[in-house]
Structure formats: C-alpha cells, structure tokens
Amino acid sequence: MDGVSVTLGPVAEPYLQAFPPPQLFFGLLVEKGVSIAEAYILSCPFLSWQMILIGDPLYRPFRAETLKN
Known about the structure:
Blueprint: E1 6-10, H1 22-32, H2 36-43, E2 51-55
Antiparallel strand pairs: 1-2
C-alpha cells in the first residue's frame, strides 16, 4: 500500500490537549478493532472545528481477530 489512508490534524493552532491521546487512540484501533472514526471520536478530548480527520471513516487497519469471521 502506498500513500496515506487516513490522517488527522489541526486546521489552526489548537492546544496540545486537543489531540487524541495516542495510547487511547491506538489502543482502540489495535485492541478493540474499532474503525478509525470510532477511535477518533472516542479518544478526542474536545470536539472542535480546529481538529479534522480526513480519510475513509470505516478504515480498520488493525481489525480484531474475533471480528474477522
């Protein structure tokens, strides 16, 4: 796979606290197998116009083994 499937970041200068905590964000992706949109919304401490997620909201890079069947 070449390129970027999903990215997130600020469109202006948010405070560092506005970014999703990496341990929670990636924990949801790896351990829970949720989609990227679910991981973002569950781990984002503030819902703000300054933070944006671009890509396929249903993208699941680390889908849990139990969900594959």
